[in-house]
């Protein structure tokens, strides 16, 4: 096993780690970060003029420091850091770049501990439950680790939750709530961003507690698999419910190649262009049709095998997102409006979703929206002929049914996303 080891943190010694020690460590980190941010915005801290380039360089250095200290603080902060890595509306790009590289990997915990958890949760010795149970994990992450096994003659993987995780979350989230309230008061929002730190905290806390209930993850996996049951280019490992509890998840072993390992995919003979189309289509299906999507699609959670010339394998269903029908229909209209360069259609869809609130005079807003849409003109024109030919082959005629119209829009969105 080769595991990327995060810098050591006292959090891992949960049996002897007091609430006070953890609280002091967290607040020491927070005040250090706030001071560094404040200092980076002071003219006196720069040699010569405080230029945008110098400020950006300071942010890059500080973002790297932030990432390294998040790794030291352990699972709670790693997970929150990953969530913030997608929030360009909150953080400058330098922070997004660093946090997007945040490794969800920490040292594996002892195999004896993993075996003890499995036996306690499933109620029997591993030798009785499994035909074989590999004590060395094949992967380790912030929330748990994965062991290969054989049960009833079938290859499976057993995901075992890291011990003491809920207690650690309870301490960390209690402190993070206070931190969110503090940031809500001191954040000047001088960059124009509308950050609601308490709402962000509530969202993060909800996701974290959901992720440490493996029965919920198992249910998510089955729902996701059912949504794609008629699509042979998507595979979801089957769940073994008899051997699954809130802290132990047993599922089918489905090996694959990480989707970002280009050379390995080429050696496997996978058509990467078709694979890219499958990836886009799968997410359009999730978001626009199912309203239930995989919310953590990093390369560690999506793999490829050679079944059917290249099949997408989805792993880890702890973090899922849901979209209401109203929002799904609004999104379809927004993207269709973008395709047609119809600013009015885009705005009406945004009103429908509640993203924009109509005012008395929308002239300036319409002009801005149209200017934005026109910026896509050259790219769309270059692709229009190809898309229209593809749509003609599908046999669409006017007027289409609502279902045909939605399907047509998804095909067009897929073309735009190429």
TrEMBL record:
Biological process annotations from GO? membrane lipid biosynthetic process; regulation of response to reactive oxygen species
Name all ABC1 atypical kinase-like domain ranges: 102-349
Q: Would you tell me the protein name for this molecule?
A: ABC1 atypical kinase-like domain-containing protein
Q: Which InterPro entries match?
A: ABC1_dom, Kinase-like_dom_sf, UbiB_kinase
Q: Which family does it belong to?
A: Belongs to the protein kinase superfamily. ADCK protein kinase family.
Per the record, its GO cellular-component terms are: membrane
Segments for region (Disordered): 391-418
